[in-house]
Amino acid sequence: MADQLTYRLAKPEDSRLYFYWANDDAVRANSFSPGKIEWEIHEDWFRKKLAADDSYLLVFFAGADAVGQVRMDRGAGNVLEIDVSVDKAWRGKKIGHAIMMTIREISDKYFPSMRIKGIIQKQNIASVRAFESAGFLKEEEVMVKDILCDVFYLH
Question: Number of helices and strands (H, E) in the chain?
């Protein structure tokens, strides 16, 4: 499936799609801020992320269908932190794994000297499995907003 995915950098016109994905019930349940996001707050956030030199928003496609997104933020040191979500119509179809394998390729090509980091709530079994199956290694457990999380790294 990974070889059938394509991706591109997000564009301003993707804001509504990201808003839809961000407010999906399962995404909110696995978020560190589980409340619904207001449009004005999202639009401001999205515009700032697109303009930032230290953030990358990627939209993933299976054919013409947008199937998910990855946000990559440069953190302290040599770390690129990622956040991944899959469109609800594509969950359970191994898209998360395919996206994660593509992230491996992207990191090897564009960020070979950086460590790729993902912080996943332990309860989010599908995401934990996607990170593990893509070769990310769990290096620690942390509490984020009183939620126990696994921290995965690549490189």
Answer: 5, 7
Q: Which helix (H) or strand (E) holds 26?
A: helix 25-29
* Spatial contact of 22 and 37, defined as CB atoms under 8 Å apart: yes
Q: Could you tell me which residues come within 8 angstroms of residue 122 by beta carbon, excluding any fewer than 6 positions away?
A: 128, 141, 148, 149, 150
Across-strand partners of 148? 143
Percentage of the chain exceeding pLDDT 70: 98
The full DSSP string for 107-149 is: HHHH-TTSEEEEEEETT-HHHHHHHHHTT-EEEEEEEETTEEE
Nearest to 117 by CA among 65, 62, 69, 78: 78
For residue 34, the 8-state DSSP code is -
Cα–Cα separations (whole angstroms), residue 125 to 46, 59, 61: 27, 23, 23
pLDDT of 2 > 60? The answer is no
**Distance, CA of 35 to CA of 29 (rounded, Å):** 9
For 23, other C-beta atoms within 10 Å of its C-beta total: 16
Contact indicator for 98, 5 with CB cutoff of 8 Å: yes
Structure confidence by residue, pLDDT tens digits, 89-139:
999 898 999 999 999 999 999 999 999 999 999 999 989 999 999 999 999
